[in-house]
C-alpha cells in the first residue's frame, strides 16, 4: 500500500478531518459553483439541469477517491496497520501401532522373572489398546504343565510406552513394560516381573541393579515376522542320508483363540518314494518355535519337523524331524532358508 502523508488543516490542527465532512464540503462547493454559473436558483432550463448533474457526479467521484486515500492513513499520518494472516498449524497425524500386532517372544535373565524366564504368544492392537495371549515356555515355578496360556491387556501411552498386565494365573500376575521401537518389531528397555504367585521372587530388586556388566539387555521382547514363501534346504539322518527339501509355506494372518499361529502349504522331498506329495496337516507357531507335520495322502507316511526360526523368518532351523509310517522310523536334523 503506498505511503500517504495526511496533513491537517491549520484551522483543524487538533483533529482529523473525517471522510464524511470532506464529502459534504465538496458537494457544497460543487453546487455553489453550479449556482454561480447557471444564475439564480429559479433557472429551470434543461441545459442547466444537465450541467448541474454532471458536476455533482464528478464531485462525488472525487470525494470517493479522497475517502479511499484517507482510509489508508492513520491519524498520525502513518500507513494503517495490516492484520497478519492467521496461519493454522497442520494437525499432527495420530500414530498407528498396527504393526505391533503379531507373534512375539519375551525372555529375561532378571531375578524378578527367574521362575518364568521365557514367554511367547500374540498381541492384537486396537487404537492404543493392546491385548493378547501368552504361553510360558520355560520356568520351574509352574506345575504340572507350562502349556496353559493367560491373557494380557494394556495400553500405549505418549511416546510409545507400553504397559501390559496379565490376568491372574497359577504363577501369579505378570507386569510388562517397554518402549515400542520405531519399526514396532521390538520393545526397548523392556522389563517384566511377576507378583503374587509361585513364580514371584522372594524379593523384588531394583531393575537398575539387574543389568549385566557388559550392559546387555536383561529382557528381550521381539516380534517374529510371518513365515511366508518358499524355503529350501535338506534333512539329514544319523546315517548320513540327506534329503533335499523344498517347502511352500503360508502363515495364518491371525492367531487362534490360544494365541497360536498356524501354517498351510506343501513340501517336496526329492527322490523319496515315501513322501511323494506331502501337505501340511498340522502346525503350531509360538514365538520363535515351530512345529510342522507333512503327510503324504497317498502313502500315509508323515514327517514332523520341530525347531526355531529367526525374527525375520528367513531361516528355519529344524532341531528334530521324525518320519512315521511304512517307511519309518527315522529321524534327524535340517535347515531350510528362503
CATH hierarchy class name of the largest domain = Mainly Beta
| Overall geometric form | extended
Q: Give the N-terminus to C-terminus distance in angstroms.
A: 70 Å
- CA gyration radius, whole angstroms: 43 Å
Q: How many helical elements?
A: 2
Instruction: Please report which band the strand proportion falls in: under 5%, 5-15%, 15-25%, 25-35%, 35-45% or over 45%.
Output: 35-45%
Q: Describe the biggest sheet?
A: 8 strands, antiparallel, barrel
Question: Quaternary arrangement of the chains shown?
Answer: single chain
Number-wise, the strands total: 16
What is the CATH fold-level name of the largest domain? Lipocalin
Q: Estimate percent helicity.
A: 10-25%
Mean pLDDT: 80
What order do the SSEs take from the amino end to the carboxyl end, as H and E? HHEEEEEEEEEEEEEEEE
Uncertain regions: pLDDT < 50 for 5+ in a row? 1-15, 37-44, 204-212
Question: Structural class of the secondary elements?
Answer: mainly beta
Strand order of the largest sheet: 1-2-3-4-5-6-7-8
At CATH level 2, the architecture of the largest domain is Beta Barrel
Total discrete domains:
3
Amino acid at each position: 500500500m503506498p505511503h500517504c502523508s495526511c496533513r491537517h488543516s491549520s484551522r483543524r490542527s487538533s483533529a482529523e478531518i473525517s471522510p464524511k465532512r470532506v464529502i459534504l464540503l465538496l458537494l457544497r462547493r460543487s453546487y455553489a459553483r453550479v449556482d454561480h454559473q447557471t444564475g439564480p436558483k429559479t433557472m429551470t432550463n434543461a441545459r442547466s439541469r444537465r450541467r448541474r448533474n454532471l458536476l455533482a457526479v464528478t464531485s462525488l467521484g472525487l470525494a470517493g477517491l479522497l475517502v479511499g486515500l484517507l482510509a489508508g492513513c492513520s491519524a498520525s499520518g502513518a500507513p494503517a496497520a495490516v492484520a497478519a494472516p492467521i496461519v493454522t498449524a497442520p494437525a499432527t497425524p495420530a500414530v498407528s501401532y498396527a504393526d505391533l500386532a503379531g507373534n512375539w517372544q519375551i525372555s529375561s535373565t532378571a531375578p524378578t522373572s527367574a521362575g518364568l524366564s521365557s514367554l511367547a504368544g500374540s498381541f492384537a492392537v486396537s487404537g492404543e489398546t493392546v491385548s493378547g495371549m501368552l504361553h510360558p515356555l520355560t520356568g520351574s515355578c509352574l506345575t504340572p504343565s507350562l502349556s496353559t496360556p493367560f491373557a494380557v491387556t494394556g495400553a500405549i501411552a505418549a511416546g510409545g510406552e507400553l504397559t501390559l498386565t496379565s490376568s491372574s494365573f497359577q504363577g501369579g500376575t505378570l507386569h510388562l513394560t517397554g518402549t515400542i521401537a520405531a519399526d514396532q518389531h521390538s520393545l526397548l528397555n523392556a522389563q517384566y516381573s511377576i507378583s503374587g504367585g509361585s513364580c514371584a521372587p522372594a524379593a523384588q530388586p531394583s531393575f537398575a541393579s539387574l543389568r549385566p556388566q557388559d550392559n546387555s539387555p536383561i529382557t528381550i521382547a521381539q516380534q517374529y515376522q510371518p513365515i511366508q514363501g518358499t524355503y529350501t534346504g535338506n534333512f539329514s539322518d544319523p546315517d548320513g542320508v540327506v534329503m533335499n527339501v523344498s517347502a511352500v509355506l503360508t502363515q495364518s494372518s491371525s492367531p487362534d483363540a490360544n494365541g497360536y499361529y498356524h501354517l498351510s502349504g506343501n513340501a517336496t522331498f526329492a527322490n523319496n518314494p515315501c513322501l511323494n506329495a506331502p501337505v501340511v496337516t498340522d502346525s503350531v507357531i509360538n514365538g520363535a518355535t515351530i512345529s510342522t507335520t507333512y503327510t503324504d495322502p497317498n502313502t500315509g507316511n508323515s514327517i514332523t519337523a520341530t525347531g526355531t526360526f529367526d525374527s525375520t523368518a528367513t531361516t528355519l532351523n529344524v532341531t528334530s524331524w521324525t518320519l512315521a509310517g511304512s517307511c519309518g522310523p527315522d529321524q534327524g536334523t535340517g535347515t531350510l532358508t528362503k
